Amino acid sequence: MTCDITIKDVAKQANVSVATVSRVLNGLDRVSDQTRKKVLKVVKELNYVPNTMAASMITKQTQMLAVVVPEIENPFYTSVIKGTVNVAKERGYNTFVFSTNDSESEEDTFFESSLRRNVDGIVLIGAHKDPVFYQKMNKPVILVDRYIDGCGLDGVIIDNFGGAYEATKYLIEYGHRDIAIITGPQTFNDGTERYWGYQQALKDNGIELVSDYQKHGDWFENNGYQSTKELMKLPKPPTAIFAANNLICQGTIKALRDLDLTIGLDVSLVGFDANDLAEFVKPRVSVVKRPTYEMGTHAAEMLIEKLKQVEKNESFPKKVTLGVELQKFGSVKYLG
Amino acid sequence: MTCDITIKDVAKQANVSVATVSRVLNGLDRVSDQTRKKVLKVVKELNYVPNTMAASMITKQTQMLAVVVPEIENPFYTSVIKGTVNVAKERGYNTFVFSTNDSESEEDTFFESSLRRNVDGIVLIGAHKDPVFYQKMNKPVILVDRYIDGCGLDGVIIDNFGGAYEATKYLIEYGHRDIAIITGPQTFNDGTERYWGYQQALKDNGIELVSDYQKHGDWFENNGYQSTKELMKLPKPPTAIFAANNLICQGTIKALRDLDLTIGLDVSLVGFDANDLAEFVKPRVSVVKRPTYEMGTHAAEMLIEKLKQVEKNESFPKKVTLGVELQKFGSVKYLG
DNA sequence: CCTTTTTGTAAAAACGTTTACATTTGGATT
DNA sequence: AATCCAAATGTAAACGTTTTTACAAAAAGG
Q1: I need a surface site. Which of A120, A198, B221, B327 has the fewest CB within 10 A?
Q2: B121 with B235, same domain?
């Protein structure tokens, strides 16, 4: 188990040329059975482990991927990472994991190091907002979750609009009119589409938008917590809240608990994306569930597929939208 | 932002030799200010990005680390990963993240690929049990959380014994005698030391061990859930439970909720390691908190420090034990 | 003004592979 | 037995760097 043994040592020991050893190991060219066995025996004896880097210099392929997420401690991203890493492993790729803290400059430093390292491709949940940034990508990239229109890249996203629309419609069907939304910044499609879905559902049912009921903050728990408290302090508080991501939903659940308000009784709640608390509290909180792991696997598969296409047949960008599922539990009160 | 520009292109464009360009970029040898500026200008103009791999072939350093964990979706491990990755990034290293599913064979395949890729060092939460496996490591390795005695490697662990002892003592001081433990396998020090701590605290206080009160399963939530239900079904159920990791604790909380038992009233509970549910429920669950992020940073720092020591001055293995903190909340009833 | 030292730069050899091309081998066909 | 062809193997040039060696030019010292 040492790595200071090179292909030359194997060649010498086996009385063949390095080319032959290489051929045996990569199995591309024909080698006689006799020499194959002889070489493999020596490889085993010496515990020879090929140096991937040296090979990469020739082949121009590193068999390395990168997956870039805003925050490695958010379970949603971890799930995407796991999906990507697993598929990559299956296909013989190793994966770098980067966490950008949703900062453009940290993402920039990542891109430089991924360039230096010649990663073959990137699964990216990007921090950059400008399509121009994405246009000048010189490597295969699959965007996940966030998609920048006009960037020219492939992407795997989910049906944010549909999920939010269904969630809101569900509240309306249960008789709610005063429906609040707590959501993140309107920077990316995740924010905008969920907000649109909410808006559209209200419009389609003839419910007027109330600006006090719309809380646009960040995507973190504290936004959910504070916004919920503010909402419930209003002269006429909403009867239902749509929490537009996992952390916000957790914040809302905590705030309602601290306000001594019972979910599904005093206030109705629907979340977006699964989370520990939503599953724990009684009644369990209804959520729009999205296929997080599958987003990761799908992206990895698309990426590796793309790598195989020798020709860069500049096809049109492919955007895959995965469906979501509204899971109904007891957190929504029927107002009749 | 292309990577097909090599040091030769820069050299040609700047009318210097490749050696000079290399010297400018690495800043080791002396270069006149004039040529330095000239070269840097061309570097910028051409958007030259050095190829790390080619450099690695010479320097024998890849500036790549690996961090290996059993399960990337467990928040404890994610926190360790984050610590390691952040320190690595600061020091100019990129980090591979591997998840082994706690399987020895998956760990083996990882080791081979890390060998092929010539990672400089490894932060490892290992799946292997046999010290012999660790003894034949040919790369700098820092073990985290789990430490195999006699493996000859450096490690960063926490005070499992002390934490478990304190937790149990705390329960005893509050008047409890019938104290159960739900813990994982006794394969590694994490399991054994926590169990010993529990045992010792009982012994030191003259409390006899009851085998029915000791649940040894795996480290997952379902073990906590099922074991709790079994415990509470006993003719004489325990008055207090020590849940020996984060997931088990979550399982216990859920089981008690489903059994309609109130924490801190019907049953007392202390957990090991923070978790969402312990922080959420009222009363909040007391836990032994461990410095997860710091375990990652500390390990990375030790590793990088080790890499700097040119001489492999085969010193004795260094085992660092980080302290834990018992955080007391309302989950333990005072029995007087 | 000549010698010695310092400074800046270039040339070339490595690093461990892959691969295009060249050569050898051996069996089949004349 | 001579010839040919395919299969098997060897040779050597790449890949993009770093680093050692060498050498010229400039600076310093007598």
Answers
A1: B327
A2: no
Residue numbers in A near B3 (CB within 8 A): 115, 118, 138
Are B109 and B220 found together in one domain?
Answer: no
Residue B333 in domain: no
Amino acid identity, residue A165? Y
Residue B146: inside a domain = yes
CATH number for A26: 1.10.260.40
A68 and A117: one domain?
A: yes
Residue B64: what are its φ and ψ, rounded to 5°?
Answer: -120, 135
B183 and B260 co-located in one domain = yes
Distance from the first to the final alpha carbon of chain B = 71
Q: In this complex, is the C-beta atom of A13 within 8 Å of any C-beta atom belonging to chain B? A: no
pTM given for the model: 0.92
d(CA A114, CA A117): 5
- The sheet carrying B179-183 orders its strands as B214-216, B179-183, B240-243, B268-272, B286-289, B325-327
pLDDT tens digits, one per residue of A260-306:
999 999 999 999 999 999 999 999 999 999 999 999 999 999 999 99
**Per the structure, how many domains does chain B have?**
3
Same domain, A279 and A165: yes
The answer to whether residues B213 and B316 belong to one domain is no
The whole-angstrom distance between residue B313's C-alpha and the CA centroid of its chain comes to 26
The answer, for A220 touching chain B at a CB cutoff of 8 Å, is no
Both A245 and A166 in one domain: the answer is yes
Q: Please judge whether A116 and B75 are an interchain contact, meaning their C-beta atoms are less than 8 angstroms apart.
A: no
Cβ contacts of A282 on chain B, cutoff 8 Å? 257
Q: Residues of B with CB below 8 A from A221's CB?
A: none
pLDDT in tens, A206-232: 999 999 999 999 999 999 999 999 999
Q: Which residue among A62, A81, A276 places its CB closest to the CB of B72?
A: A81
Two tokens, residue A132: 């121009």
Alpha-carbon distances of B142 from B78, B155, B160, B210, B303, rounded to whole Å: 17, 5, 18, 37, 6
Residue A249 located in a structural domain = yes
Where are the strands (E) in B30-162, listed by range?
A: 64-69, 94-99, 121-124, 141-144, 154-158
Q: What is the CATH number of the domain that holds A150?
A: 3.40.50.2300
Q: B242 burial class (0-12, 13-18, 19+ CB within 10 angstroms)? A: buried
Is A58 within 8 Å of chain B by CB? no
**Tell me: the pLDDT tens digits for B68-96?**
999 999 999 999 999 999 999 999 999 98
Q: Which residues form the domain of B283?
A: 160-289
Within a domain: B328: no
CB distance from A53 to chain B under 8 Å?
A: yes
Starting from the edge strand earliest in sequence, which strands make up the sheet with A319-322, in order? Answer: A319-322, A154-158, A141-144, A121-124, A64-69, A94-99, B94-99, B64-69, B121-124, B141-144, B154-158, B319-322
